[in-house]
Amino acid sequence: MSWIESIQKAINYMEENLLNDLTMDQIAQEVNSSVFHFQRIFSILTDMSIADYIRRRRLTLAAQELMNTEHKIIDLAYKYGYDSPEAFTKAFRKQHNVTPSEARKQQGPLQSYNRLIIQVSLKGAEPMKYKIVEKEKFQVVGVKRTYNCQNGENTQGIPLFWDEMNNKGMDDVLFKLNNGEIKGVLGVCVPDKHYKENSLMDYWIATEHVGEVPDNLLTMEVPAAKWVVFEVHGPMPDAMQNTWKQIYSEWFPSNPYEPAGSAELEVYSDEDPFSPDLYSEIWISIK
């Protein structure tokens, strides 16, 4: 089963069980995936976490019921997974910009999130430049934080982590330490060693380094692997985000490889990050 088919199967499962207690473990098991990897690919392809999708769909259906039935607001709150009418009203207002009572009186437009249908895009008009490389194990040094993929913490936390480290001058430190084969500062995404049982990931801001490590930095060994290395051309962050989408919506569905489920790297140069000529890379371990 391809990743696109897996995502659609999981969406179908979520839709069939929107009114039940859904866990990331259950959803990932439906498509025989780790929680970590499934959540990551889902967010790359859809620009939202699974928790966001479920919440938006439930509140869309709740709004439809408010408009078309006489069901009490308190009953709808419990039906759609909220512990109290107050919690339901707060979430409803955040999505629709009106309260449930105002929606029932048709006071203002509602915001509907429709059921997702994932489609493979095999355009071929925008060629992807890549190479397959085999690389022995190597060491990276840097700083790391652990994030929970289940609640979308990683998508919010990682950009803040970069901002914090850049403000502290960490990028300059890492560029000076960079003496390995991979040139640049790395964003390294690594599933927790028990990733099949949980949704935690470690995210490193690091660089490949051989030799003595400063006391204030951590070190990690990246195992030997076969990698597909994609060229990324253009300013950040759009060029990187667009390439990730193209990889999973176009490249993997039309090639005989699949992700190995281990480390993934983003490689950044010290050039102007907003330059239209900026060159970066994405490394994904494959099998």
From TrEMBL:
Q: Does the keyword section mention Transcription?
A: yes
User: Which keywords fit this entry according to its UniProt record?
Assistant: DNA-binding, Transcription, Transcription regulation
Superkingdom is Bacteria
- Keyword Kinase listed: no
Q: Which SUPFAM superfamilies does the record match to this protein? A: Homeodomain-like, Probable bacterial effector-binding domain
**Location of the PH domain:** 1-12
InterPro entries found in the cross-reference section: AraC_E-bd, Cass2, Homeodomain-like_sf, HTH_AraC, HTH_AraC-typ_CS, MarA-like, PH_domain, Reg_factor_effector_dom_sf
Q: Where is the HTH araC/xylS-type domain?
A: 8-106
Concerning PANTHER family, the annotation shows: RIGHT ORIGIN-BINDING PROTEIN (PTHR47504:SF5)
This one is known as AraC family transcriptional regulator
